[in-house]
Design goal:
Length: about 90
């Protein structure tokens, strides 16, 4: 199944949780900040890793998201990717 990164404003947390639960229930591997970032983790590094590993970005677009610097960074990081040549992680 697909690896999906959920980008959202903290003000849209309820919607992001619902989408994440539905996608996860359908068998997809979901990256949601509160599921993946643990105490002591580097927040920026965790987000970058989640974006790099994701097949899809779900952008919960709202007024709050438009004003969020985090949401903007997440979609911009994904926007520049080549849709034909996926980025391969080194092992």
């Amino acid at each position: 199944m697909a690896r999906v990164f959920i980008s959202h404003s903290s003000k849209d947390k309820v919607l992001a949780r619902r989408i994440s639960a539905d996608l996860s229930g359908a068998g997809h591997h979901v990256w949601l900040d509160e599921w993946r970032i643990r105490v002591g983790d580097c927040i920026v590094g965790s987000i970058e890793e989640g974006l790099e590993d994701a097949d899809f970005l779900v952008l919960c677009l709202s007024d709050a998201a438009v004003s969020s610097g985090w949401v903007e960074r997440e979609w911009r990081a994904t926007y520049g990717r080549d849709p034909v040549e996926p980025v391969l992680a080194s092992t």
